[in-house]
Model the fold of this input.
Amino acid sequence: MEHAVAATPAWAELLYLVAGVLFILSLRGLSSPESSQRGNQYGMVGMAIAVVTTLIVHPVGLPLIIAAIAIGGSIGWFIAQKIKMTAMPELVAGFHSLVGLAAVLVGASAFLNPDAFGIVDGVTGLIHPVSRIELGLGVAIGAITFSGSIIAFLKLSGRMSGSPILLPGRHVINLGLLAGIIGLIAYFVTDQAEWIFWTVMVLAFIIGFLLIVPIGGADMPVVISMLNSYSGWAAAAMGFTLQNTAMIITGALVGSSGAILSYIMCKAMNRSFISVIAGGFGAESDAGGAKAGGVAKAYKAGSAEDAAFIMKNAESVIIIPGYGMAVSQAQHALREMGDLLRKEGVSVKYAIHPVAGRMPGHMNVLLAEANVPYDEVFELEDINGEFAQADVAFVIGANDVTNPAAKTDKTSPIYGMPVLDVEKAKTVLFIKRSMGGVGYAGVDNEVFYMDNTMMLLADAKKMVENIVKALAH
Amino acid sequence: MGFISILSIFVMACFVGYYVVWSVTPALHTPLMAVTNAISSVIIVGALIASSAAVGGSEISKWLGLLAVVLASINIFGGFAVTRRMLAMYKKKDKKPVTAAAK
Done:
């Protein structure tokens, strides 16, 4: 009995396993929108089982615990009801930071009171060496998740500039910190000194902060997926410490989920994970290729009435939303426009680039919020062949993901990134606030200057509302 | 449970995660992040153990645990609720599109 956790009754172990399986089923449910709600319910049941089992097995001061759950639960519930769908990326980043901080607190608590966690070696009276590694890793990953997510949250919510902030010599500093953390955790195995534990924690907080600060807005989908992954690994590390099946399964699920999403996002930008994490993309120093500015090229500008006229007489319109749609909250007006066009007998489809917006699936959620049926919304591979037959490509708040330079210009920083072939449509209507700004990659887009492109220079929402008015006449 | 059997569960779960997550439709990637967020708060199990540490434990350890319970609860309730809210918005074409929102 030197290992108290091993004394968890068999029925409790079994229930933790059931909870883990329910978590697997909850992700499985997301394979289609029809089964997704049931999946979410599996997740809730799994969580309830895990919590209640723990409360039964461990002697707890129930009133305090219930108060804590009630406080946290009502805050969470309230936020979930009030949050705007456009604010989803920063909400997710904020939630990640809480998981990270919770992992740090649990790790610290376990370090201060290892008896309660059953990780004390009966002979030496010290924490098991293996548990020390797990604790160190858990706390380090948790701390990185916490401080990294806080920065991501500040950037996504606009409280901090979205453009990359570059420290000189940051790679050396980061690598040094990382080496320091790993070295200290290794040393922690041989010497269970308090200062090592707390130093690891502090260094991890610092590296999380330094890692995310230099990463620009356009790379946020990768960052947020990566932090998602970290929050899973932190939970898994704690699961190892507690020998808890539910935590280990969940940690592995969440960890791989975030890792796969990061991979998908990197692939959709044709960038390596390392280069994203190295940061700095979209900074002034970085933008090679055709940089905007200098010679003003000729473009055609149009009005809402022109756009309405063109689309009314079209047979098919493909709408390409981007982050700009989210910023100006244009999704409802856009859906109205789609409905009016459909009344005129126009076929309307939506084309989503995997990295459009600030997190994976960002555009899909906003369109769903505006009541756009999900079977009218298509992924890049499924719709890219249709642009050649389309009469109108309607680009709203997207830029880099439509840039043909990614296919042709080897010097462009976005070369090789899969893009939507909007230039193949008969007419391109391109909503943009002004001709001044370029996309996040800092590159000019030749689509602006094509003969069959009409630039609609205005705030996305206002422009769409005006088009709706013109269509309704 | 020995370390190796725990490691086995972990490695197997990584593979399960790999296949399950690839089967998630890209349209639901945002709800996926929200729900993984909620379930990773299963770390509340550790927080509950920490705050239950009555015998011989330091008071600080207990309060750290309680704070972690609060944080994890925010995530659990917030994560599942916001996922539910999002998923409720995904609708198929079948019915006529809502026309109520005219102007």
